[in-house]
Amino acid sequence: RTVRKMRWEFRNGRLTGFEGDAAALALRKQYDLSTGDKDRIAGVSIGTNPKAQLGFLQNSIVRGAVSVAVGGNEFLGGRNKSGFGFESTIRAATVEADGKPIIREGKLLVA
Questions:
Q1: Closest C-alpha to 95, from 85, 107, 84, 87
Q2: Are 18 and 5 in contact (CB under 8 A)?
Q3: Tell me: the pLDDT tens digits for 10-35?
Q4: Per-residue pLDDT tens for 42-89?
Q5: CA angle 90, 56, 96 (to 5 degrees)
């Protein structure tokens, strides 16, 4: 299944809100059954490449795309230990930090 609509909310580096479409709710069931650092941010990337286009391997580098991962990240050299891990890339994303927008609809607002 493809997740088409999902909303995550984070506080202090932990996932505190998880909602979305039927596919997102199926993922949520797996999340709920998992243990360990499943709720910790595993990685964040902001795409800045104006020539890259959306496609399987380069999604995270496309200008305006934001990738967010939660759960285990030991395979990346991180310290999060969990059997759960999920990463998603959002095109034309809006990202706020402490209530202030840093990216709006894929446009970087800070230098």
A1: 107
A2: no
A3: 999 899 999 999 999 999 999 999 99
A4: 999 999 888 998 887 788 898 889 999 999 999 989 999 999 999 988
A5: 15
CA 23 from centroid of its chain's CA atoms:
16
Are 101 and 94 spatial neighbours (Cβ–Cβ below 8 Å)?
yes
Torsion angle, alpha carbons of 58, 61, 64, 68, to 10 = 90
CA 74 to chain centre: 17
Tokens 């285990």 belong to residue: 72
| pTM (predicted TM-score) | 0.82
Q: Tell me whether strands 66-71 and 95-97 are parallel, antiparallel or unpaired.
A: unpaired
Report the 10 Å Cβ neighbour count for 97: 10
DSSP 8-state assignment for residue 93: -
Structure tokens at 62: 């496309």
